[in-house]
Design goal:
The complex is a heterodimer of chains A (114) and B (119).
Chain A: E1 3-5, E2 10-14, E3 19-21, E4 24-26, E5 33-38, E6 44-50, E7 56-58, E8 64-68, E9 73-78, E10 87-94, E11 102-104, E12 108-113
Parallel strand pairs in A: 2-12
Antiparallel strand pairs in A: 1-4, 3-9, 5-6, 5-10, 7-8, 8-9, 10-11, 10-12
Chain B: E1 5-7, E2 10-13, E3 19-24, E4 31-37, E5 44-50, E6 53-56, E7 65-68, E8 75-79, E9 88-95, E10 109-110, E11 114-118
Parallel strand pairs in B: 2-11
Antiparallel strand pairs in B: 1-3, 3-8, 4-5, 4-9, 5-6, 7-8, 9-10, 9-11
The chains are: A mainly beta (114), B mainly beta (119).
Chain lengths: 114, 119
């Protein structure tokens, strides 16, 4: 069965410092992996997606993630945090080869301190 | 263009009542998904449709939950005889295609959700 682990329920960084949100997955297949962001009282927004092309994926708002098969990881990074990055971040693995059914991780709340 | 919309945005109901939650997908999107998100948790898959056909309903927690998409566009998630444990955010998502896609655009786009509170 597929599953997603987000190792930190809460991450706090200072504005201008790097962001690292960790994600590990298990999947029977070569997975499709996603990061979504959820701002308070808003819908989920796609940040980036990995589908077995380049292992380093660039997304919106300066975020990127690197797929490491040997480590079964898909950590999300950003070189310099902005106050507007404060939100909940979900790592997602597709449940099958078709990218249809998603399994969401429990989420990591990112706080950005001035 | 317009995104996925859901109505109502907030619903408060008494235990035992039936509720119907509506999802309007992005126009032309083939696949439609329903998720439930409890407070502080990630969304949990409920069911999905390709066109009007319900492909997988394995995530529906029990037979009080049902969903339909009769014309392959708007979908309704119905919860009968609501219970307090049904209180959650219910999210809908739509996807342009069914099947394999490498494009970042061909992924699920989520609506704002309906927050259901059962008293």
């Amino acid at each position: 069965a597929q599953s997603v682990t987000q190792l930190d329920s809460h991450v706090s960084v200072s504005e201008g410092t790097p962001v690292l949100l960790r994600c590990n997955y298990s999947s029977s297949y070569s997975p499709s992996l996603f990061w979504y962001v959820q701002h308070p009282n808003k819908g989920l927004q796609l940040l980036l997606k990995y589908t077995s092309a380049a292992t380093l994926v660039k997304g919106i708002n300066g975020f990127e993630a690197e797929f490491k098969k040997s480590e079964t990881s898909f950590h999300l990074t950003k070189p310099s945090a902005h106050m507007s990055d404060a939100a909940e971040y979900f790592c997602v693995v597709s449940l099958d080869n078709y990218g249809q059914n998603f399994v969401f991780g429990p989420g990591t709340r990112l706080s950005v301190l001035p | 263009g317009a995104g996925v919309s859901q109505s109502p945005r907030y619903k408060v109901t008494k235990r035992g009542q039936d509720v119907a939650l509506r999802c309007d997908p992005i126009s032309g999107h083939v696949s439609l998904y329903w998720y439930r998100q409890a407070l502080g948790q990630g969304p949990e898959f409920l069911t999905y449709f390709n066109y009007e056909a319900q492909q997988d309903k394995s995530g529906l927690p029990n037979d009080r939950f049902s969903a339909e998409r009769p014309e392959g566009s708007i979908s309704t998630l119905t919860i009968q005889r609501t219970e307090q444990r049904d209180s959650a955010m219910y999210r809908c998502a739509s996807r342009r295609l069914a099947g394999v896609s490498m494009s970042i655009a061909d992924t699920q786009y989520f609506g704002p959700g309906t927050r259901l509170t059962v008293l």
